[in-house]
Write a structure and sequence with these properties.
146 residues; 7 helices
Length: 146
């Protein structure tokens, strides 16, 4: 019986991706993939909560997928980040970006970017269990349930 690969493992195998030390990735590259990972986590939970119109699904998801919520989530998780996670978060938060959020302060945008960088880092380490755990804790800390 063939061993089941994670999504990351399957993508690396099928597309012949080379092993790279992800610590060399820019924090904005990590945030780029982390933004999608966060979105997939939230959208998956929203869809799994019940079959609804795409309009309702979208309305629910955008309550969670925004810089303000992600910034508050990051703030609430500071005490549970490992040293390594804190360093990745800090690099993402401090990265100079050419874009800004439409409906968020610069401070919230930077904290959200740090959170996305951390989620991207965890994904590229094939540690989705930790990424999901942090998102779940973060939502719980904010009193948000999907």
């Amino acid at each position: 019986m063939e061993e089941s690969l994670s999504l990351l493992g399957q993508l690396k195998k099928e597309f012949g991706c080379k092993e790279v030390d992800i610590r060399t990735y820019s924090p904005l590259a990590l945030a780029y993939i982390g933004d999608s990972i966060y979105d997939v986590i939230i959208r998956t939970v929203v869809v799994e909560r019940g079959n609804q119109s795409t309009k309702k699904l979208h309305r629910t998801a955008v309550r969670y997928v925004n810089a303000g919520t992600q910034a508050r989530m990051a703030e609430s998780l500071q005490d549970v980040f490992t040293e390594e996670e804190e360093e990745v978060y800090r690099r993402g938060r401090n990265a100079k970006s050419n874009s800004t959020a439409k409906n968020a302060s610069l401070a919230d945008y930077r904290k959200a970017t740090g959170m996305e960088a951390l989620l991207g880092y965890l994904y590229l380490q094939d540690r989705m269990d930790r990424a999901v755990e942090l998102v779940k804790w973060g939502l719980g800390n904010l009193g948000l349930e999907i």
